[in-house]
């Protein structure tokens, strides 16, 4: 559990402390996720709700690995891509999905830590493996839908340039563009709120443990 706590600290720094990921934090995050996935295969690690959330958090870094490997293949072998904008957006969306899934899962871990600290008995029926798996699944579905909309917007932009002015494609593009802009703004403000909420939660936990 000490190793898992260190991993959580690393991920909190990577996604909720740093304003943006850099090469060092990304590399350390990938190593930490690989090590965590190996640890979680051990029979010594009991199946708890927190472990389920951490497992999903570690697996989210697979998206980063796919994005990096794909970019390296394109750059190393000079692969010819028919739609550079579409591919570039796809790789960026993989990183976006990873960041959003990670932030949400880390916030769920923080909420669970808060419940364990202040309502250990009353919250026991909420802190189940089943609920943790359901929460992880919902987060993945929502983020997948978000990135699908982002990718669709890129595709519609490319299609609208060659479409007639009053084509249904153009109208669909305007709708998609507006929805994408609103969703990006919502994601940005939600990220700020999650940072504030996490700081508050761990502030309360720290001083509660200190007073004891």
TrEMBL record:
<dbReference type="GO" id="GO:0007200">
    <property type="term" value="P:phospholipase C-activating G protein-coupled receptor signaling pathway"/>
</dbReference>
<feature type="transmembrane region" description="Helical">
    <location>
        <begin position="12"/>
        <end position="40"/>
    </location>
</feature>
<keyword id="KW-0675">Receptor</keyword>
<keyword id="KW-1133">Transmembrane helix</keyword>
<feature type="domain" description="G-protein coupled receptors family 1 profile">
    <location>
        <begin position="32"/>
        <end position="212"/>
    </location>
</feature>
<keyword id="KW-0812">Transmembrane</keyword>
<dbReference type="GO" id="GO:0035025">
    <property type="term" value="P:positive regulation of Rho protein signal transduction"/>
</dbReference>
<feature type="transmembrane region" description="Helical">
    <location>
        <begin position="52"/>
        <end position="77"/>
    </location>
</feature>
<keyword id="KW-0297">G-protein coupled receptor</keyword>
<protein>
    <submittedName>
        <fullName>CNR2 protein</fullName>
    </submittedName>
</protein>
<keyword id="KW-0807">Transducer</keyword>
<dbReference type="InterPro" id="IPR017452">
    <property type="entry name" value="GPCR_Rhodpsn_7TM"/>
</dbReference>
<keyword id="KW-0325">Glycoprotein</keyword>
<keyword id="KW-0472">Membrane</keyword>
<feature type="transmembrane region" description="Helical">
    <location>
        <begin position="97"/>
        <end position="117"/>
    </location>
</feature>
<dbReference type="GO" id="GO:0005886">
    <property type="term" value="C:plasma membrane"/>
</dbReference>
<feature type="transmembrane region" description="Helical">
    <location>
        <begin position="179"/>
        <end position="203"/>
    </location>
</feature>
<dbReference type="GO" id="GO:0004930">
    <property type="term" value="F:G protein-coupled receptor activity"/>
</dbReference>
């Amino acid at each position: 559990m000490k190793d898992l706590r260190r991993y959580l600290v690393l991920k909190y720094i990577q996604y909720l402390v740093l304003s943006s990921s850099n090469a060092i934090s990304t590399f350390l995050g990938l190593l930490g996720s690989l090590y965590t996935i190996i640890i979680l295969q051990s029979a010594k690690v009991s199946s708890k709700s927190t472990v389920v959330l951490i497992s999903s958090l570690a697996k989210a870094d697979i998206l980063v690995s796919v994005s990096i490997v794909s970019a390296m293949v394109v750059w190393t072998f000079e692969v010819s891509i028919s739609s550079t904008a579409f591919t570039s957006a796809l790789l960026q969306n993989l990183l976006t999905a990873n960041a959003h899934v990670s932030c949400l899962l880390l916030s769920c871990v923080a909420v669970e830590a808060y419940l364990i600290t202040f309502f250990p008995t009353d919250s026991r029926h909420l802190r189940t493996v089943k609920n943790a798996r359901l929460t992880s699944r919902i987060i993945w579905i929502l983020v997948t839908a978000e990135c699908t909309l982002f990718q669709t917007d890129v595709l519609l932009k490319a299609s609208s340039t060659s479409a007639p002015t009053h084509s249904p494609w153009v109208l669909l593009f305007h709708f998609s563009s507006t929805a994408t802009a609103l969703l990006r703004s919502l994601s940005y403000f939600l990220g700020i709120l999650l940072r504030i909420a996490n700081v508050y939660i761990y502030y309360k936990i720290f001083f509660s443990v200190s007073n004891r």
